[in-house]
Design brief:
Layout: E1 3-6, E2 9-12, H1 19-25, E3 49-54, E4 59-62, E5 73-75, H2 79-92, H3 110-117, E6 141-143, H4 153-161, E7 168-170, E8 177-179, H5 193-197, E9 203-205, E10 218-219, E11 222-223, E12 232-238, E13 241-247, H6 260-264, E14 279-280, E15 283-284, H7 287-305, E16 310-313, H8 320-333, E17 337-339, H9 344-354, H10 364-368, E18 372-376, H11 380-383, H12 385-396, E19 400-404, E20 416-418, H13 425-432, H14 443-457, E21 461-466, H15 467-484, E22 493-497, H16 503-510, H17 516-524, E23 530-534, H18 538-541, H19 545-553, E24 557-562, E25 574-577, E26 586-589, E27 594-598, H20 608-611, H21 633-640, H22 647-657, E28 674-675, E29 698-704, H23 712-715, E30 728-731, H24 733-738, E31 746-751, E32 754-762, E33 770-774, E34 791-797
Parallel strand pairs: 1-5, 16-17, 16-23, 18-19, 18-21, 19-20, 21-22, 23-24, 24-25, 29-33, 30-32
Antiparallel strand pairs: 1-2, 3-4, 3-5, 6-9, 7-8, 10-12, 11-12, 12-13, 14-15, 14-25, 26-27, 27-28, 29-34, 31-32, 31-34
Helix pairs in contact: 8-21, 9-15, 9-16, 13-14, 13-15, 17-19
Length: 798
């Protein structure tokens, strides 16, 4: 580890650290543009000059391009360095339009900061400026090419880091153009990261344009709620409106970037149809009236039917504190009818994931540094988009990536693909659990054994599974396979993709409690008279919507706490509005078991654009903020339990009762989080049902997630509607020819749950005999729920 001196301060840094990064560790900020921690150095901007006084390098050099060595003595502010930087800034600013007052980057512009730091303050050039035509890059990114300083960050991020192919650099010398060959929406699902990496106002957030300056925003560290990875974000709000999200650095999870669903899926917080007041039936009431009605009803049920007549359902959208207090409330009422997931198969899969030893679980950081990754039944871009980006970084370092799936899994890398039928996946996993075996019962098991031997030979292998396709039995086999494929002196880590941002937390708290199937049976038999849904939507999430609606209709009381106008909210007898994630503080536990705290960004309230019809200031005055009735679910539960609504007390109580959550009370929102210290007990599983024999005209239907349109909260974001697909079904070319269908034409999908007319699409990466339909909320296929067992279907001409 080299030791060097920078501005009379001595520091020892790891081998491979450049001088710019070493100076930053000392708190010395060397002006720069092109360098970015996630991208590395290219020396394009020529601004980070420093003077090397002693050591193996002498004179003025670019600090990002010189590795730290022993005995270096460096001056970052000598006269020669300052004069050099001033000249560099001057030529970079020669063609800049100087439109800071109308530029959205103003106030958080690196060009502004570095121009001042570089000593440039007076423009001497008076000639004509280089100008460009801007492009329409779609609904997310605004393009202002005249502000470009040619640092190459955008191209390196989009093409090299994210794997995009439709955005690049064209031209020569000072006539470079960063954009597409022609106007059109950017195709990469990570295009929003261009906003974060661009040091000027060339590429800005179109959804946030002309809304606020950085100093006007309320911001706080938070967590993305749109999948189970728990990516770190910083939301920004103003006038009771959540106006944007940007990436926050967490090296254990998302690194430096986020996906477009996480960045632009915040619109559910501002949705005009969001319910913001307590309702008794369809009548608006006060919180006091609603709480009194709830307590009276539950007391009556306990007296008439016993505590077993009351059931409770939470979800993976609820914070850990909410889930914990829900459990405490059920215990206080004497009810054991509690579960944390309306989808029984997803519930059991999450319990399996939570039974894994924390040391064997793979973080995103582990995946970025692995040398071999095998994905079985996992579709990263649809189920956990930033996982796809982590796999790309591993592939860029030479890792072998293998995808085993019956679906057409898209990744931003070239990888090995094996189209395996759904019924083959258990056999492949069985082979993975016996990598040392020589003889196998089937070709699928033999293929799994070969993959297992490759994992044994790797230094840092990772095994990744999707819980929706594998189910709880497949997830359990995958964890056993990871244990069997651990090389000597190392560990084959595993990752399971779960349904929501706190599926893991709910699974840890569920113990051996019932699943939602058991609750439905109790409703159908008349034993359960009331259901309290806390940020859960069983009507939309349970695989058989008809059965769920019929069971809920038999209840005497349906109580719903939620922040969105879900299908279950529409049927509630008593409704309590809750805050969105950005309107409260709490904790989420991601799919690797990492507890991460998030802070309150702003107080709940109807956005000024809605409450004042866009006028400012509003034309009425009130002591109350319009739409401020929503309360954090955990604070309402604390009131019902008769205790103080203090977050720290709740966390300390949970930590004391359940030592597996040790470290929770000390969490801060700006930290990397910490893992649960011990797993839960593995659940007892029944054998998965065998696949039915298909007739010649039948196919196995797989209902899957889609990047846009499947997840509840992001689907309520207006700006994502522009990239949401129309309903469609995917088939293999062999099946299309056999069934005499035509690509692009409407076909009729027939199942035991109903019939739908969809567009036919063909993909050669699908396993023959399989039909794939992504769930898209608000469309005809909304009632099809991912995570269910494959069902038999027929597809015919419409």
């Amino acid at each position: 580890m080299p030791t060097l001196t920078i501005d009379n301060q001595t520091i020892t840094v790891p081998e491979g650290t450049n001088v710019l990064e070493a100076a930053r560790q000392l708190g010395i900020e060397v002006p720069h543009f092109c360098h970015h921690e996630a991208l590395g150095s290219v020396g394009a901007c020529r601004l980070c000059a420093v003077e090397f006084l002693e050591g193996p390098v002498k004179g003025i050099q670019m600090s990002c391009m010189v590795l730290a060595k022993d005995d270096m003595v460096i001056d970052t502010g000598s006269d020669g360095v300052l004069a050099y930087r001033a000249q560099v800034i001057e030529w970079l600013m020669t063609n800049h339009p100087h439109d800071c007052p109308v530029c959205d980057e103003g106030g958080e512009c690196q060009l502004q900061d570095m121009t001042v730091a570089g000593g440039h303050g007076v423009r001497r050039y008076t000639g004509p400026k280089r100008t460009y035509q801007n492009q329409d890059l779609g609904p997310f990114i605004a393009h202002e090419m005249n502000r470009c300083i040619q640092c190459y960050r955008c191209v390196r991020t989009y093409q090299e880091y994210c794997g995009g192919k439709d955005f690049g650099v064209m031209g020569t010398r000072q006539r470079l153009y960063f954009g597409r060959f022609s106007d059109g929406p950017l195709e990469s699902p990570f295009s929003g990261n261009l906003v974060d990496v661009c040091p000027t106002g060339v590429l800005t957030d179109k959804t946030y344009r002309y809304k606020s300056r950085i100093w006007d925003l309320q911001e706080a560290p938070s967590i993305c709620p749109h999948c189970s990875l728990g990516c770190a974000v910083i939301p920004g709000a103003r006038y009771q409106e959540l106006q944007r999200r940007r990436a926050r650095t967490n090296r254990r999870t998302n690194g430096h970037f986020i996906c477009d669903r996480g960045r632009f899926g915040y619109g559910y917080v501002n949705h005009p149809d969001r319910p913001r007041a307590p309702l008794l039936g369809h009548r608006r009431v006060t919180w006091q009236e609603a709480l009194a009605a709830l307590q009276n009803h539950l007391h009556e049920f306990c007296e008439l039917y016993g505590s077993g007549s009351i059931s409770m359902l939470s979800s993976s959208r609820a914070s850990l504190e909410t889930q914990f207090l829900t459990k405490r409330w059920a215990n206080a009422l004497g009810s054991g009818q509690l579960c944390f997931e309306a989808h029984p198969r997803r519930d059991q899969a999450a319990r399996v994931a939570a039974s894994q030893a924390p040391d064997c679980s793979a973080s995103m950081e582990d995946i970025r540094s692995c040398d071999m990754a095998v994905l079985v039944g996992a579709d990263p871009l649809a189920e956990a988009p930033m996982l796809a980006l982590a796999l790309r970084q591993a592939a860029r370092r030479g890792a072998r990536i293998v995808v085993v799936d019956p679906r057409p899994v898209e990744l931003p890398i070239d990888c090995e693909r094996h189209a395996a039928a759904p019924e083959e996946l258990p056999r492949i996993l069985q082979g993975l659990t016996r990598p040392q075996q020589n003889a196998f019962a089937s070709a699928s098991e033999e293929f799994g054994g070969a993959l297992g031997r490759a994992l044994l030979e790797a230094k840092n292998p990772v095994l990744i599974g999707g819980s929706d396709l594998l189910g709880p039995q497949g997830c359990q086999m995958l964890l056993k396979a990871a244990e069997a494929c651990s090389p000597t002196g190392s560990t084959c880590r595993s990752m399971l993709l779960l349904a929501g941002p706190n599926s893991f937390g709910g699974a840890m708290l569920s113990d051996d409690g019932p699943g939602f199937d058991a609750l439905l049976e109790g409703m159908e038999q008349g034993r359960i008279k009331s259901l309290v849904c806390i940020e859960a939507d069983p009507v939309a999430d349970y695989p058989d919507r008809k059965r769920c609606r019929a069971a809920l209709a038999r209840l005497d009381l349906l109580v719903v706490f939620d922040c969105a106008a879900t299908a279950t909210v529409q049927e509630a007898d008593l409704f309590f509005p809750t805050t969105a994630l950005e309107e409260a503080a709490g904790t989420l536990v991601n799919n690797e078991g990492r507890m991460q705290a998030f802070e309150k960004v702003f107080s709940a309230g109807t956005p000024l654009l809605q409450s004042a019809a866009g006028d400012h200031p509003p034309r009425f005055f009130s002591r109350d903020i319009p739409g401020s009735h929503p309360q954090p679910a955990w604070t309402t539960l604390a009131r019902l339990l008769g205790r103080d609504a203090e977050l720290e007390k709740v966390r300390r109580e949970l930590e004391k009762i359940d030592p597996r959550f040790d470290g929770l009370a000390g969490l801060t929102a700006d930290s990397e989080g910490c893992r649960v210290v011990a797993p839960r007990q593995a659940p007892a599983l029944v054998a998965a049902p065998a696949s039915g024999v298909t007739a010649s005209d039948q196919l196995h239907l797989l209902v899957t997630e889609h990047l846009y349109g499947s997840e509840l909260l992001s689907d309520l974001s207006p700006c994502l509607q522009a990239v949401k697909s129309d309903p469609y079904v995917w088939l293999h070319p062999q099946d299309v020819a056999r069934l005499k269908l035509v690509e692009g034409k409407p076909v009729r999908l027939c199942t035991s749950l109903g019939e739908w007319t969809l567009e036919l699409r063909i993909n050669g990466d699908i396993s023959p005999g399989v039909a794939v339909v992504p769930r898209l909320r608000g469309t005809v296929v909304e009632t099809l729920v991912p995570g269910s067992e494959p069902m038999l279907c027929r597809i015919e001409k419409a």
